[in-house]
Amino acid sequence: MEDGAQARSVGVVGAGIVGVALAFLLSKRGFDVTLFDRELPGKSGPSFGNAGHIAGSEIFPISNAGILTTAMRMLVDPNGPLKIDPFYVPRLTPWLFRFYLSGRHRAYEKATEALTMLSARALPSTKTLLAEAGLSNMVRHKPALYLYDSSRSLQSALPSWRAKRDRGHSFSVIADRRDLTELEPSLSHEFAGAVLSDDWGAVTDPYHVVTNLFEAAIAGGVKYRRQNVEEVLPAKHMITVGCEGEAFSFDKVVIACGAHTPFLARQIGDHLPIEAEGGYNYTYPASGLELNHPLILADRGIAATSISSGLRVGGWAVFAGLTSEPKQAYFDRIEKIAVRAFPRLHTLGGRAWSGLRPSTPDSVPIISQSARAKGVFYTAGHGHCGLSFAAVSAEIMLELLRGNQQAGRPFAIDRFKSLR
């Protein structure tokens, strides 16, 4: 019998969408799974408040050859989507240097190859996973509409879209404002044009997806312990998870706790370049609007989606560390952008939310065995695509746990050795 085909014990640390998807899949494939988190599943972090998109064409890393110019322009714009706390710059500098290197030449191409593979499987794998959990009604295919403020901005984006088409992602250009209004009647008339990307999807509500998938996992035999994991201790034949005075032993342990993953990794001797990237949004339960597509306000770093709990508008990338507090000024600017984009938006009762995305320098998640401990694995660093890539990441981790190391090659932690 091949390694992993028989039931064996696996501890999964982290009950966001990535950890819950993995726990469910492993249990369905015969593993004895225990899931750990100090919070209720999906309650903290981006699994609760993300845009609900399944991004099927996000194949290029954020860092690229022109990133320095772009980043500087964003930083000096109060409404720009990039914010860096000046006091955090010394801590962030090593990550930023790797981020810069990952946008150059071969590193950029390798990251694109990895993201292309994940994006191609994002929607099909999500549909398959949720169908197996009896949750098919929670995800649907929905092309995404990328909105551009000016004709110049739209034209500048087209080479990137053509490159995506060369890799199998179809799209169409909407250059007439009347056509755009027909597609999305709630939109402001200030947008000059758009690109409709076909390979996207959306969920009914990201938090409901996590909680319902968790319930399906528990029904399937997954054990859940609401405890803070303080340490992961590798030994020759077993891995021990230490929680608030208690210890639990497993054949394998997968650490999937988002932006907090590097803390446990350092105990083992692995140094994961994952930074906490803050995001902000508002959800308007009585918005008076219903969007027909997932929307990306491409020049503003904002996403908008109609989910079951209302209209959700938000985004941005704020680097200020794990312990930073949300800033009201950022919420205010997000709401101003929302009102400008949707002139008929009813903002009364809007709920503000902020969370920390786990981001790698090359925009590619880490789905890898530890370099230091044979029985320890990581699946983290999904950035803006945790919901999009959770199901396919679970499939890759299943292969790794079964002994197929080739399955995780593009996502292994040793790829960062060249980014120094």
TrEMBL record:
<keyword id="KW-0812">Transmembrane</keyword>
<keyword id="KW-0560">Oxidoreductase</keyword>
<feature type="transmembrane region" description="Helical">
    <location>
        <begin position="6"/>
        <end position="26"/>
    </location>
</feature>
<dbReference type="InterPro" id="IPR036188">
    <property type="entry name" value="FAD/NAD-bd_sf"/>
</dbReference>
<protein>
    <submittedName>
        <fullName>D-amino-acid dehydrogenase</fullName>
        <ecNumber>1.4.99.-</ecNumber>
    </submittedName>
</protein>
<dbReference type="InterPro" id="IPR006076">
    <property type="entry name" value="FAD-dep_OxRdtase"/>
</dbReference>
<keyword id="KW-0472">Membrane</keyword>
<dbReference type="Pfam" id="PF01266">
    <property type="entry name" value="DAO"/>
</dbReference>
<dbReference type="GO" id="GO:0016491">
    <property type="term" value="F:oxidoreductase activity"/>
</dbReference>
<feature type="domain" description="FAD dependent oxidoreductase">
    <location>
        <begin position="10"/>
        <end position="399"/>
    </location>
</feature>
<keyword id="KW-1133">Transmembrane helix</keyword>
